[in-house]
């Protein structure tokens, strides 16, 4: 009887979500092109708990890519986030201490400005840079861009700079000599999945979206890459896709491949994760109705407001479950080895089945995002 009840719950959930959700995005034929760079790979050393929980034994460190996006609108070019500068000890002291103290380690890498120029994109052709927020792994080194490149930020972002403010994370060189535009979402007249949005170009091709919580002024973007498909540039709405997945609507639209379902039974530890039809040592993924990980709310969390962050994440998770929207957060390691990097375009992600083929990578034991079982003496248990 218990099994029948649980199965009924699954069927009811499937019926409830079968029609999809209207996110309120106006129709348009206008589009932008989107390309992605992995500017660096970094390790949060023994501090994965500052990003998400639970943090299982042996998985105290987490490796993440740091993505930066080139957005092209007609003849204009924009960057959404810049990744991390190469000379990390020249950040403001409060940030540089994360590297000198061994909390964060960064692999050798090129600055996004070098990557752009290597790819034949002159820096003078970049009209503006959008910062999703002011964390060090998103702001790059703006001083390397010409003053003709504007900076666009959320209106609530803290723009106090070191040394005038000893604990400031920004420096004067990040802002000076260029036009800085602050996006005020209180004026927004659009709402997508409960999130306020502004039509940046006025033609429906690119929306800035208010996703508060991670840091004051945190914003994301929704790029229309074909008339009916989108890429959500998710910033740090979440750091691991296990914070957004699975959920009933997501599982309805993107059923987990049979081989990964079977592997998950023993790969995902039932000491830390459970679902309606799970048994000891046998995890049942289809009946897991909430995400596997949660936003960190510990005292040293990288999320300034974990409660508000979780609400924003819930709303973006509706994007993630939509077959017409590809959500790309800034540090999704599950896609690091499969996403097509610059000079490739991401616009045809839906036509080529990219989302369908990759959204469950994170539960594959061989994927670098897999973090759902303890590691004992170097071996997953």
TrEMBL record:
The keyword DNA damage does not apply. InterPro entries: MBL_superfamily_lactonases, Metallo-B-lactamas, RibonucZ/Hydroxyglut_hydro. GO terms for molecular function: hydrolase activity; metal ion binding. CDD domains: metallo-hydrolase-like_MBL-fold (cd07730). The keyword Zinc applies. Keywords: Hydrolase, Metal-binding, Signal, Zinc. Residues 65-277 form the Metallo-beta-lactamase domain. Residues 1-18 form the signal peptide. Belongs to the metallo-beta-lactamase superfamily. This is Metallo-beta-lactamase superfamily protein.
């Amino acid at each position: 009887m218990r099994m029948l009840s649980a199965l009924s719950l699954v069927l009811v959930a499937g019926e409830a979500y079968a029609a999809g959700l209207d996110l309120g995005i106006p129709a348009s034929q206008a589009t932008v092109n989107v390309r992605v760079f992995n500017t660096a790979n970094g390790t949060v050393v023994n501090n994965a708990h500052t990003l998400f929980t639970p943090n299982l034994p042996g998985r105290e460190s987490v490796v993440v890519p740091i993505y930066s996006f080139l957005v092209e609108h007609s003849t204009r070019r924009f960057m959404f986030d810049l990744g991390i500068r190469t000379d990390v000890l020249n950040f403001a002291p409060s940030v540089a201490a994360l590297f000198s103290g061994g909390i964060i380690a960064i692999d050798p890498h090129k600055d996004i400005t070098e990557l752009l120029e290597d790819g034949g994109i002159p820096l003078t052709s970049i009209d503006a840079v959008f910062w999703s927020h002011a964390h060090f792994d998103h702001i790059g080194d703006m001083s390397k861009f010409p003053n003709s490149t504007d900076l666009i930020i959320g209106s609530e972002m803290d723009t106090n700079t070191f040394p005038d403010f000893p604990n400031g994370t920004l420096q004067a060189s990040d802002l000076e000599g260029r036009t800085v535009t602050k996006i005020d979402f209180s004026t927004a007249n659009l709402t997508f999945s409960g999130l306020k949005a502004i039509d940046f170009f006025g033609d429906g091709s690119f929306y800035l979206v208010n996703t508060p919580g991670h840091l004051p002024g945190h914003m994301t973007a929704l790029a229309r890459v074909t008339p009916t498909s989108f890429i959500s540039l998710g910033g740090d709405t979440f750091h691991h896709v296990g914070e957004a997945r699975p959920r009933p609507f997501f599982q309805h639209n993107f059923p987990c491949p049979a081989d990964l379902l079977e592997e998950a039974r023993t790969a995902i530890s039932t000491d830390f994760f459970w679902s309606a039809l799970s048994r000891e040592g046998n995890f049942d993924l289809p009946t897991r109705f909430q995400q596997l990980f949660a936003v960190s709310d510990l005292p040293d969390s990288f999320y300034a407001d974990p409660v508000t962050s979780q609400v924003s994440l819930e709303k973006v998770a509706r994007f993630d479950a939509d077959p017409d929207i590809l959500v790309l957060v800034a540090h999704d390691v599950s896609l690091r080895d499969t996403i097509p990097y610059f000079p490739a375009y991401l616009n045809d992600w839906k036509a080529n089945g990219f989302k369908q083929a990759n959204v469950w990578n994170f539960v594959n034991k061989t994927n670098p995002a897999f973090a759902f079982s303890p590691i004992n003496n170097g071996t997953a248990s």
